[in-house]
Specification:
Radius of gyration: 17 Å
Order of helices and strands: HHHHHHHHHH
Number of domains: 2
Strand content: under 5%
Oligomer: single chain
Shape: globular
Number of helices: 10
């Protein structure tokens, strides 16, 4: 779990830690990275790391949460553009291939599910839908796992497909699944 206070200093420290992880991810696979390496890159003390995060997974979660919330704000600001939760998930992933690859290669799909679940209220507001909490939980979890499966193949194929290609592929997958019921 990450715990970042709303003061400028805490936010800046969390950002430096996130940037440090992003830099190390360009050189090493996620499972091979240590907290010390991440801290060293931007001169952050390990005590500062532990003040904000418990593990490196928490940094990934924080990064994904920040991207998710920013993407939702961007969609909300461009209300003329049709909103698709599935496309939003794929857009975040394709615009951040290093983070996506780290999550996929380390099999941390629960981070994506946790991030979408923690932002369910924003999603519901964005999509302008009314669902019970239970139905919303099922919907976001299902779509997140479908997106994860699509992104897993995308990473294994070298992140070649564009956002539009992935989105069309995912739509075909979902239509096929729907026909199985």
């Amino acid at each position: 779990m990450y715990h970042i206070k709303e003061d400028q200093r805490s936010i800046q420290s969390a950002q430096l830690i996130s940037e440090g992880l992003a830099m190390v991810l360009k050189k090493k696979d996620y499972p091979d990275i240590s907290i010390s390496e991440v801290c060293k890159i931007n001169g952050i003390a390990r005590t500062t790391f532990y003040r904000h995060f418990d593990t490196l997974d928490d940094v990934l979660m924080y990064q994904y949460d920040q991207l998710f919330q920013q993407s939702i704000r961007n969609y909300a600001d461009n209300s003329y553009e049709p909103v698709s939760f599935a496309r939003l998930l794929l857009q975040i992933a394709t615009e951040n291939p290093t983070l996506t690859t780290a999550i996929i290669k380390s099999d941390r799909r629960e981070l994506l599910v946790a991030a979408t679940r923690s932002n369910e209220k924003l999603i519901m507001d964005l999509l302008q839908i009314q669902l019970s909490n239970k139905d919303l939980s099922y919907l976001t979890t299902l779509l997140t796992y479908i997106a994860y499966a699509t992104l897993k193949e995308w990473v294994e194929h070298g992140c070649q497909e564009s956002l539009d290609e992935l989105y069309e592929l995912m739509k075909r997958e979902v239509k096929f699944i729907a026909n199985q019921f």
